[in-house]
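Regression test attached.
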Amino acid sequence: MQIMNIPARLAVVAAAATLSFTAAAADISGAGATFPYPIYAKWADAYKKLTGVGLNYQSIGSGGGIKQIKAKTVTFGASDMPLKPDDLRASGLLQFPVIIGGVVPVVNVKGIQGGQLHLDGATVASIYLGDITQWNDPKIKGLNPKLTLPSTAIAPVYRSDGSGTNFLFSDYLSKASPKFLSSIGANASVQWPTGIGAKGNEGVANMTTQTDGAIGYVEYAFAKQNKMAYTLLTNKAGAAVAPSAESFQAAAANADWVHAEGYYLILTDQAGAKSWPITGASFILLYKQPADPAPVIEALKFFSWAYQDGASMAAELDYVPLPAALIAQVKKTWATEITSGGHPVWSGK
Amino acid sequence: MENSGSETDIVAIIDPRHAAKQLIYERIFRAATLSAAILVLLILGGVAISLLRGAWPAVGRFGFSFVTREIWNPVTEEFGALAAIYGTVVTSAIAMLLAVPAGFGIALFLTELCPPLLKRPIGVAVELLAAVPSIIFGIWGLFVLAPVLQRHVQPWLIGHLGNIPLLGGLFKGPPFGIGVLTAGVVLAIMVLPFIAATMRDVFDTVPAMLKESGYGLGATTWEVMWNVVVPHSRVGMVGGIMLGLGRALGETMAVTFVIGNAHRISSSLLAPGTTISSAIANEFTEAVGDLYTSSLIALGLLLFLITFTVIAAAQAMLRRLERRGFAV
């Protein structure tokens, strides 16, 4: 069979394409979440120009990041889902938030523009459970007395790939609806009882735009840059809020970080009249007592610089920087908890 | 390979020193090819062992129910592969149903009917189709094919076939554009060049004398193809089909884009489903917890077994054909 050479040639090309290269020894190495990857990459680029120290960040997903840091193959791991305090204690890891983002429901209903439709958590949960199936359902009408809603069937679109976006969205719905909590729960991937799964933000956005009557959820930056029809959501305080950098930061500022052990705090459904209910932070994981403190110091320097000078770059990419009080708290944690031979590693600079 | 010794013997008579050198080269060459062959076995064995080891926690926890249950719930850590197996088999079946007749037609046309001027351009086009990366097929499927199916093809299918008893069950539900059928169509396009190119090459090996004898006896083109060309190339044709089937079973990226990724089995081909490889691609990166990861690896093991079974079945079929005297 002489034709075997076609697949064989393809295999060679594929193998060459997947070859990865290891970075120079002086670089900071990290791996994990895909959600913050664009901003980490942007920061890394600016930081390299400034200091000559590069960052080799592999955006392999939060699960992969946690595995890599536990296997000690990288200096830091990154995760969109915070590890529980027990898990942190057992593995000797320190966890802290770096950047904030939000998840935004988007819809494709004839005659409805962005920011017009108003939903709440319980209603969105019922839609994704398959209990509300039409746009003119009394529950949706009740929230939107002034809108004329069509009888179109609702097509729920979800993220099929495991992601922090899924985690935040399902966590929010679990908090808003006891039925969602008991039958589905919160995770990076969950078993959706209805709807269609699309891959990545771009897949969900495309499926939503293409399907009449669809509802989906994407990262804020994606909804904004593609000018999608986002919805308002009722937050914990009962106010209808629109997704924006301000409403994400309000959620982060209103959260009780001081009493959150290991910064284990999920920012969905936070108190405060201005808080966007589906907000989330992306976290970094480091060893508290590293065998070799030098790379850890380099990583801390990088994140310290990013807190200080990275805010405007974050805003350009529609990420939201941490509130100042939280940054101060994180730096204090570094100074007290990361040690080598009994001495603190971070001088607080 | 039969009498590799004889040539060196002849050289030995001419020049003993040269012969000794040749012998060493011969040995090195033989060792090199042997180790390359062994390497393949080692890699395959390594893959099988690491898959087994990785899948072990899931196999131990769920046992045989892993392949019989439809549930896939990462929150409660309850996993069953039935939906993924079903999706893999059904999408591949649709792909073969569409691609085998089309590939057969292309190959016959190219070898027997095509005007010489068109032969090269079409042949090159088929080969180029094979070189398109699967991600491109995925994006094309999602952005171009899915809307067309959603607006024009699926409403027609639902309207005209949806009410027929039994068959109608395959075409029920809302037209999402993506789903099991769309994945099958994209897969068909992807495996088509493999099947067409293999068949063309085996049809080309049919001796011209045989064909001309057929024509000489007054057979029509169709009769020559069906009674001379096809029986002569059955083994090669099965090989080409298996090559295509192997690709369809394992295809990941393109399917992930268009299948709708739902761990559900529905009777309708228009509904979203999932396949083994797309489930792994979707979930592996963010899978936290040993049981979840292990279940995904167990899915990989299942795909390995399915592919292995397909190849073994193809081999058995080829042997039977050979015994019946259809071999090339």
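Expected vs. actual: identical. The longest strand of chain B covers residues 72-73.
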